[in-house]
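User: I'm putting together a teaching handout on how sequence relates to shape, and I'd like one worked example. Could you take Deoxyribodipyrimidine photo-lyase from Aquilegia coerulea, show the sequence you're using, and then write out its predicted structure as tokens right after it?

Assistant: Happy to. First the sequence, then the structure tokens directly below it.
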Amino acid sequence: MALSSSSSSITPVVQSGRIRILKEGSFKQKCGGGGPIVYWMFRDQRLKDNWALIHAVDEANKANVPVVVAFNLFDQFLGAKARQLGFMLRGLRQLQSNLAQTLDIPFFLFQGEAVETIPNFVKECEASVLVMDFSPLREVRKWKEEICKRVGDSVAVHEVDAHNVVPLWEASSKLEYSARTLRAKINKLLPMYLNDFPNLQAPDKKWDGGYRTIDWDNIIADVIRKGAEVPELDWCVPGEVSAMEVLMGSKDGFLTKRLKGYSTDRNNPLKPKALSGLSPYLHFGQISAQRCALEARKVRNLHPQSVDAFLEELVVRRELADNFCYYQPHYDSLLGAWEWARKTLIDHGADKREHIYTKEQLEKANTADPLWNASQLEMVHYGKLHGFLRMYWGKKILEWTSGPQEALALAIYLNDKYHIDGRDPNGYVGCMWSICGVHDQGWKERAVFGKIRYMNYAGCKRKFDVEGYIAYVKRLVVGTKKRNGEILAGQTAKEVKISAI
């Protein structure tokens, strides 16, 4: 996907197409004056290149009021464990410091239900505008509806899509059938939206409402203890600085050192370095997809095929996933499949399976397929499964369970529990593609799968060195277990030392 050039001018405010007014405030607030701007940060957890934060500061300067950032920590949101919450919280701790030092904006962390904590905070500080991140997920949309009801009539509520390059509602107003139907719409709007960010300055008016100390060490220790069955990872360091290092670093940056092989090697599970490595940072909003696209476009003349392939995944495929989850309320259910796929899966639901595995057998990688077992173990221990094998992994679950709905539920459960980038539209669409044929087409009919695309072990052997991949995962698991054991031993020794004092 070659991107068109955009204007070099930088607009000082956010384009109106990125903002939706979910609730109008009073006439007084719209004309200026009143209380501070509260930015409820959720999906886009960064200071730089954040259209929602830029909008909050712009609104604050227009009304000559301060800005405050609020974040609500949920208890194991959608099954998140130490792996996901630890990464997120360590990034947020850095963000709080950066906001204070760079923009003099306070960061408040709440724990509990957002439908209670956010309206209470808005009322407490007498806010005039509440700015929210956009998310297509059902739970978040329900929270927003309830929050709009609970905040006072004088409070305006704005939603900003800072996650997508082309705002979801601008890209399309309906459920798209495939990347083919969305691609042209996005390409048409890229010249308007793929332009650089303004230089964000500290708000004109400073916050004088006091600060609350955040006990980061204890909060992080608590979530790690509660979610210990899925431990943290050591290969991805959280935070905005680390995210930019992965993208642009002089040592091993994707665009600076690894881009050349992306177009030819990205589908080879034995060449993980060919991938960008950006998905954890994109998922938690620690880096902007728009920043990644802007930087990629600058080097397109060096490796045009790789840049075009990267931008297809980064922009079109990611935004297609958001489109599906927003316009299809059953994005994680057989009900969300296209009619042809749902019919063929139901027609073949009672077909005899060669193997039927339990949830426990699948989670522990106890199947007769060594490639699938290696895929599951990579996900469990490394927190990331290569994209090509995610497809194979999902399709074998369909083959080995009693029916498509059970297969889909199990795939989503495992995806969300172990992937560092789980609980994401890309993950839901990946499972739906593998099992329900979403964004795909009908294929030759066969047992169990019906017309859903089929994948098997022999096909994988033709694509890459399967035995080499299995050996690679074995080494990876041994190394991970050793490191985790050393960490656990160090923590135990520390606890014994403290208890003896």
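A couple of points you could highlight for students: Confidence is low (pLDDT under 50) at residues 1-12. Residues 210 and 265 are 52 Å apart (CA to CA).
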